[in-house]
């Protein structure tokens, strides 16, 4: 027998109704003993089928409840996935914005680095000019002193 029949006890059936019916009909002389036995057996079989059907209906109800629960879980999971997708999109947009900001900042830093390098070069040139000017001043002083000495000696 299949697994559903394991939950049904086929031997615990109450045949009081059948016995009552048989007694009433026996008193009137309508049924013979074989008919009563046949009717009892048929009532037992009908009861067995009824019990099996009730068991199947209960299983169907349980399966429907489990199915509904699973559908609710799927629905909640889909909502959570939508929320996570929106969150990921938002984070991606923020990341793109931060990337653009970093690129802009990098450009500004490169410009500033170039300016600093230019200033360093200009400072070096000015120091060189200052050194050249210092040497020129020293030569002019020497020439002046020589000229002054010459003029004094005349």
Question: How big is the Rg?
Answer: 55 Å
Instruction: Label the structural class.
Output: mainly alpha
Low-confidence stretches: 1-13
Percentage of residues in helical conformation: over 70%
Give the distance, in angstroms, between the N- and C-terminal Cα atoms: 148 Å
Largest sheet: none
Overall shape: rod-shaped
3D architecture notes:
By secondary structure, this protein is mainly alpha-helical. The protein has 2 helices and no strands. Residues 1-13 have low confidence and may be disordered.
Could you give a short description of this structure?
The protein is mainly α and 154 residues long. Helices cover 87% and strands 0% of the residues.
Features:
mainly alpha; disordered N terminus
Task: Map the helices and strands.
Blueprint: H1 16-28, H2 33-153
């Amino acid at each position: 027998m299949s697994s559903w029949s394991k939950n049904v006890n086929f031997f615990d059936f109450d045949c009081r109704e059948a016995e009552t019916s048989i007694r009433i009909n026996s008193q009137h002389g309508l049924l013979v003993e074989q008919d009563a036995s046949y009717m009892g057996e048929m009532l037992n079989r009908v009861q067995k089928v009824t019990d099996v059907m009730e068991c199947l209906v209960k299983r169907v109800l349980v399966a429907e409840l489990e199915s509904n629960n699973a559908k609710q879980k799927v629905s909640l999971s889909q909502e959570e996935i939508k929320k996570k997708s929106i969150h990921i999109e938002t984070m991606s947009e923020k990341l793109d914005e931060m990337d653009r900001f970093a690129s802009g900042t990098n450009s500004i830093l490169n410009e500033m680095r170039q300016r600093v390098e230019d200033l360093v070069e200009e400072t070096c040139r000015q120091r060189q000019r200052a050194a050249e000017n210092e040497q020129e001043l020293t030569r002019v002083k020497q020439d002046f002193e020589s000229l002054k000495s010459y003029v004094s000696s005349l």
